[in-house]
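Risk register update: the risk of archive-format incompatibility is retired. Evidence:
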Amino acid sequence: MPVSKEYIIKRLLLLVLVVFGVLIITFVITRIIPAHPELLWAGSHPTEEQLEKARRQLHLDKPIYVQLYYYLTDFIKGNWGVSWRTKHPVLKDIATALPATLELVIVAFIMAIIIGVPLGALAALKRETWVDHVVRVVSVLGASVPVFWLALILQLVLSSWLGLLPGAKRVDEYVVIETGFKPITGFILFDSLIQGNFAVFTNALKHIILPAFVLSMYPFGLSARMTRAVMSEVLNEQHTRSALAWGLPKRVVIYKYALKNALAPVIASLGLSFGYTIIGAFMVELVFVWPGLGLYAAMALLSYDYPAVIGCVIVVALIYTVINMIVDIVHSMIDPRVKL
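Archived output:
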């Protein structure tokens, strides 16, 4: 077995340390920002007595280390606090918003892999030709272009000017009302498909194409460049040239041996970019008014909603560390030379 129990235990302990480290740093940063969150909690036109009561309820009248103690005690018990903006438990708000972000990121990654890996392999096979040059230029542009700028440009051209795709929201409300659609998991594409509600599925698919395409640019550029680099190296190795010299079909050598050896580092790099893509999704969600974790975090930041901000940061840290562990395990399963 390439993965040992000691490795799993060590990574889980590291996960706990990372989460608590991120929690403490984020907590301290939110508390030293000059703001008056008690105004948000007390409501509109509060009196001085109401503000004083809000400060006591939120422990804002106590030193920062005492506030941290209260928060850590509640966090360990599974209580992430109440959003000062929505007045709902933070975990409940995050559970509602997170599926929208994950669905967007997953669709973006599927687009990136379907387009990026074949183009990278093609560029490796056509090295130093116009095909190779075009793929390299497009992949560099895809990985370097700011997502918010590309989102605004595509939204303006494809949605506002040409009217080809919806430019905002996740699904049209009238379609949901007309069909009586009820989400199960929060993943609208999956839920509508298993319920056989193709009207909602089609509508949601149209809405997700544009933001997912924008978000897929970074993992697309990364996967294309990595696949090209690793495939070029594998094709020049002795065992690949020997297989071709012995008369094995070129297609078998390329797709069964060379591409398989190239996939391990590509998967590792894509896994590490998953957390970065979630951060990019925050900007995309703002442009396309996508009701996910990014939009929720942005509204929390604008209103100084400290518990919601800390909750969003912790979730991103959790996802990033878990994805890193999964990538290492998958890498070891694909490449038997890697032992964990």
